[in-house]
Write a structure and sequence with these properties.
253 residues; alpha/beta; 7-stranded parallel β-sheet; 8 helices; globular
Length: 253
């Protein structure tokens, strides 16, 4: 049975909304008749997502590199011209490059991963906060990861960036509460998307990962959609500065 989060007519911006978790969130919001904005770097991916979502006038797809301030400015200009407000921001953009050793990583790789995950979240949240403060309302939800809580092989810089997002969530929550803006995060374990396919598509790695998950399976995108939309809904009006861990019990044992 579908769960309704009562987000009809709410303007929701999803970064990285053309695939994976972001696309699944957008699909759910289109069904709820929200006004959905997805952004991504590649036009072909946005075109394919728009066709799949079939959101009509309630869907807007905009190209943007969230780690570039000028792209972020243009993104919000487009949203405001079309819908006139931003009720919810979902920071979903994320990327990782395999980093065997943090101490041996080239600085350019560090910068690329930090920019995509952490700097992008900062720039988009900063711009959304400007609009939401004027509205005296808004919700910001960022997708973090349990990699930000435990050092994981090959994911060092990614984990550092996600840990930064969780602290950013707390800082923004304390700064923006006066303006009736809540700021929270969702930290999943591995989710079955193209982003993590190199891990879950390998039988040995997949079996090893599942052994550490008490619920006995890898998360599906919908498992992240529901806590994210709960935090975006009126049901979470008195929750701010928190991170919901969605890991099937992995960090409980």
């Amino acid at each position: 049975m579908s769960i309704n989060y009562n987000l009809k007519d709410k303007v929701v911006l999803i970064t990285g909304g053309s695939r994976g978790i972001g696309l699944e969130i957008a699909r759910y919001l289109v069904d709820e008749k929200a006004k959905v904005v997805i952004c991504g770097r590649k036009k072909e991916s946005l075109d394919a997502a728009s066709a799949a979502l079939n959101g009509g006038d309630n869907l807007l797809a905009l190209q943007a590199h969230v780690a570039k301030a000028e792209d972020v400015d243009a993104l919000f200009k487009g949203v405001m011209e079309r819908f006139g407000r931003v009720d919810v921001l979902i920071n979903n953009v994320g990327m990782n490059l395999f980093t065997p050793s943090l101490a041996e990583t080239d600085p350019s790789m560090w910068q690329k991963i930090i920019d995509s995950n952490l700097t992008g979240t900062f720039l988009v949240s900063r711009k959304a906060a400007e609009i939401m403060k004027a509205q005296k309302s808004g919700k910001i939800v960022s997708i973090s990861s349990i990699a930000g809580r435990k050092a994981s092989p090959g994911m060092g810089i990614y984990g550092i960036a996600k840990a930064g997002i969780e602290m950013m969530t707390k800082v923004l929550a304390s700064e923006l509460a006066f303006f009736n803006i809540t700021v929270n995060a969702v930290a999943p374990a591995m989710v079955r998307t193209e982003f993590s396919k190199p891990f879950w598509s390998n039988d040995d790695i997949s079996q090893h990962v599942v052994k550490g998950i008490p619920l006995g399976r890898i998360a599906e995108p919908i498992d992240v959609v529901h806590p994210t939309l709960f935090l975006a809904s009126a049901g979470a009006d008195f929750i701010t500065g928190q991170t919901i861990v969605v890991d099937g019990g992995t960090t409980a044992v």
